[in-house]
Write a structure and sequence with these properties.
Layout lengths: L25 E12 L7 E17 L26 E8 L1 H14 L4 E6 L6 H15 L4 E6 L9 H24 L5 E7 L2 H16 L6 E7 L5 H10 L6 E6 L4 H9 L16 H7 L3 E4 L18 H12 L11 H10 L28 H10 L3 H11 L10
Parallel strand pairs: 1-5, 4-5, 4-6, 6-7, 7-8, 8-9
Antiparallel strand pairs: 1-2, 2-3
Helix pairs in contact: 3-4, 4-5, 8-9, 10-11
């Protein structure tokens, strides 16, 4: 009952509304998903697995900056959404494969450099969470690439960790098929990939498959950005090796105080998760340098996120600084971000990184645990409590509140 009473944003927000705020910015994106189509109006796709990939063309209206802070998704407080004050869906059209290819061709031609940005969300994401967060990333970063959201079947619940992980494996072939198409499309000149949390496993596995099948990764795959990756560090070594010597530029975002990854480490046999390593310690420092992996350590950056799993959204100045450093090709392998750098960013406008693919790190991937997902836990709590497992039910409540317990995993 306590969980059911927790507030959150309205669900099923994807029913298109009239564009009553034409001056509001719009983000048009291609959706590629292995989720099952939903019968619930406004949900579009649920968290179950489909037999074949589906595609959609969606346009999201972003409210003016005066009513929304950069890095935030302005969820509607009630439905229907108001484009003047909320993120609002103004187009949601189903596409077949041929129509998806036409969308991509037309969108790539509109970009200044023929580039594509592929975003792969993390664990515990409903379809609408992924759509609205990606719209926010595209808009706030100023990236001009054609945006493609790859959304895999996630049940949007902390208790569905195992199901979600297997859903990433289920989606590997579909994502590799997309990568192969982008590689062969002569109109696409550059591909960048941004993955968050568990989505990194899907991205890395699909790239590995592609490299093994083709003998190498295509040169047009320029950037792979791994944000808080929930990936076994030993497995990552093998994945990188399997991709060969000629790889995209990898950028790794780590934080040693990431509690969500600490929970995941317990689940996976106490092996370090890639997103929580200390990049200055052996053997990681030498391995990262040998593989030319750029590292941004955010451990000392303060966060309002109790799990420290979504630090990008907490300090716009810091993420702008990161974007600037990446765009200039500087490798960050320490955890020191001085106050001088912060002042420089705040006063000189480090958003110079915006407008190119590397600048997309100006915005944050979706945080794994937030208030908006808590209402999903009520059913699970009721099931556990009904079976007489009171400690388990209590653990779920603690998970929802961000309180670590031995039974609380991410």
């Amino acid at each position: 009952m306590a969980l059911a009473g927790c507030g959150g944003h309205p669900k099923d927000v994807l029913t298109p509304v009239a564009d009553t705020s034409p001056q509001s910015p719009k983000v048009d994106m291609l959706i590629a998903t292995t989720r099952t189509r939903s019968t619930v109006p406004g949900e579009m796709f649920n968290g179950e697995r489909a037999l074949a990939p589906a595609f959609a063309d969606m346009t999201i209206s972003i409210p003016p900056s005066k009513v929304r802070k950069e890095g935030q998704v302005a969820w509607p407080k009630r439905l229907p959404s108001n484009p003047a004050t909320d993120f609002a869906t103004v187009k949601a059209d189903d596409l077949n494969v041929d129509e998806a290819k036409k969308w991509l061709s037309a969108s790539v031609r509109k970009t200044p450099d023929g580039s594509v940005l592929v975003f792969i969300h993390g664990f515990n994401n409903r379809f609408e969470d992924a759509v609205y967060r990606f719209a926010q990333i595209v808009h706030d970063s100023g990236v001009h690439s054609a945006p493609i959201l790859v959304t895999w079947p996630s049940r949007g619940s902390l208790l569905a960790y195992g199901y979600d992980r297997e859903s990433t494996n289920y989606t590997r072939n579909a994502l590799e098929t997309l990568f192969q198409y982008l590689a062969k499309d002569s109109e696409v000149k550059e591909v960048s990939i941004l993955a968050h949390s568990m989505g990194n496993w899907l991205a890395l596995e699909s790239l590995r498959q592609m490299a093994i099948r083709n003998g190498r990764l295509p040169e047009k795959f320029k950037n792979v950005m791994l944000a808080a990756p929930d990936v076994d560090v030993d497995v990552f070594r093998q994945q990188i090796a399997d991709m060969g010597k000629k790889r995209p530029q990898f950028t790794l975002f780590v934080s040693r105080d990431d509690k969500a990854l600490a929970f995941s480490r317990r689940v996976w046999g106490d092996v370090s998760r890639l997103g929580a390593i200390d990049p200055e310690q052996a053997p990681y420092k030498k391995e990262l340098e040998d593989n030319k992996i750029m590292v941004i350590d955010l451990t000392k950056i303060k966060s309002g996120d109790s799990m420290n799993h979504g630090k990008f959204a907490e300090s716009p100045q810091i993420v702008q600084l990161i974007g600037q450093r990446i765009s200039e090709g500087q490798t960050l392998t320490d955890s020191h971000v001085g106050i001088g750098d912060q002042i420089l960013v705040a006063t000189t406008g480090a958003a110079t990184a915006a407008g190119n693919v590397a600048g997309l790190v100006l915005a944050a991937p979706v945080a794994v645990i937030d208030q908006d997902t808590r209402d999903n836990y009520a059913t699970h709590v009721g099931t556990l409590a009904g079976s007489g497992t009171q400690p388990a039910a209590a653990a779920v409540k603690h998970c929802a509140e961000g309180r670590p317990t031995p039974n609380c995993t991410r």
